[in-house]
Design goal:
This protein has 594 residues and is of the alpha+beta class. The protein folds into 3 domains: 259 residues, BirA Bifunctional Protein, domain 2; 142 residues, YbaK protein (Alpha-Beta Complex); 114 residues, Rossmann fold (3-Layer(aba) Sandwich). It has 15 helices and 31 strands. β18 and β19 form a beta hairpin. The structure holds one RNA strand of 77 nucleotides.
Length: 594
Amino acid sequence: MIQSTLLITTYREAPRDADTVSQQLMLRAGMIQKVAAGIYDYLPLALRAIRKFERIVREELDRDGCQELLMPIVQPKELWEESGRWQFYGKELLRLHDRKDAEFCLGPTHEEVVTDVVRRHVKSYKQLPMNLYQIQTKFRDEIRPRFGLMRGREFLMKDGYSFHATNEDADRGYWQMFEAYSRIFRRLGVHFRPVEADSGAIGGSFTHEFHVLAGSGEDAILSCDACEYTSNVEKTAAPKLPYPYADEPVLPLQREHFQTPGIVATEAQVRAFRDADHPDGLPLDHATKCYVYRATRGDRTWDAVVVLRADHEPNPAKIRAVLEADGLDLMPIEEAERMAGARSGFIGPIGLDLPIYVDASLEGAHNLTCGGNRDGAHHFGFKPDRDLPTLAGFFDLRLAREGDACVRCGVGTYQAFRGIEVGQVFKLGTKYSKPMACVFLDEAGQEQPMIMGCYGIGITRTIAAVLEQNYDEDGIIWPWAVAPFHVHVLSLDGGKADIADAAAEAERALEAAGFDVLRDDRPGLSPGVKFKDADLLGMPLRVVVGAKGLKDGVVELRDRRTKYVWKEPPSELVAAVRAFAEKASREDAKIAKD
RNA sequence: CGGGAUGUAGCGCAGCCUGGUAGCGCACUUGACUGGGGGUCAAGGGGUCCCGAGUUCGAAUCUCGGCAUCCCGACCA
């Protein structure tokens, strides 16, 4: 393909509001163009990479017997009312009206529609299992779209859904997709990890996220340095820590022992917790903090108190699970202050007539401090198992952190990573099949709801994530598998027909051999411009056809990643590119293993 | 939701304080030279200065009100 007529515009500078590497590179390389906040044009170069990734996805899914279909972007309100999500989805669901004033939404995901497809067509256990997928535009009206394609409002997603007759078969289907996803991301040539994730309010189900590792990632991941345990920090089990001051004699509860009027921040408070025995105040892990939550489940709403060591952070996902709640928020601050009779900063568990959940690392601890429920006052000598009549128990309620001992193997410690979530496999159970009556007749002629799983890959986000991992100061470095073109042939002809012809011949021969070739035939440009553009566009292999080389009967090849340069006679070019392609694919596969 | 910025040619920016015919670099067009890391020269094309109201003889510039974009924060219970 010749570059002179392709829609590729390169820029020296990225637009000012491009805030991540992938976004800057894609804008500079003329791959994308912003149309509105979080909404982009995918120009030809980007689309070629997207199509290549889609092909990998299709190949690996079709291999497992998944069937592709295409469902609508615009979906009727009625289906969403059946699942209950019309009410619960919130503002991310973009709703609209047609000319007859009927209500619709733009699909942020397709569980409702696919469940409707299957319930109409599948009636018998003999037709199960069934795995359906599509690659479709999704729309989610994000509060704050950012980072280019990484968090757009409109984006391309592969979403797949499986339907099973039994729970065991649903598990089998889940792990089959887990393996398929691992194959897909291995073929991409990126560092990635499958990560155990929080499954939200759906009890008994499980889920993995696939993350591309990148410092710019929005998600925190903890991974054990000794075993395989890798999980989203929302989910990571935190070890029960021993109380560091266990050998102190156990004191009785001393009410309002410490006075810190006007000091609200926890760190400042503990420094001011001074008495005869503690002239410099107390360490942070000697103190507790206390949160008042409001939980909901169905129509029920109730309040609960959570107590943590002061140097720990609460983990809302764990708290929600322990409370068996669907929804969880902090109690509005004014209400909490009114109930406790103290300003925030001085609220404590003692005297609150609510169930109190205490973090496991405080089990057996004593001589703690806690808020005195009077402005400026903290109790001392707090011992949770002695002083809390409404104690609900000790649970893992905190965020695990780097350096904590691994709960799974007990040998290693957690290391922290940041990741970009590019895929998720999720066992749904009967969350949609039950309310939407997606049922089949089993061997005994009994009507049963199907067991479902859902499986997503953010196609456009993955392309952005690939770039977050593959660039240098000169521009993009495409992995072979998704490079828009494999080879970039630069014709340094300066208007000379013999050189231009040699470049065209190189392109023809490589394309005949099955490679995707971009030939920079643009006239009147100095070599430097073509070199800079080639580096920016980042095709894995560059072939320079110029007077210098042809004089010696060679063309020049250059590996974009390593910058290694070597020469071949034109007759050997195809063989050399074949060898390079094999090596590049091998190295990409190796990267994914690390 | 709170705070801070920014909006001028396709992109990056200056001009605004101190009101008086809208500028620079890149990109684009034409020509000449050049020809292995964004080359040189010359001549060009391209603007609702985010929108609206106001002040003024006159507004990109001053005032008020919107909108959009980006950043930061959302702690403390």
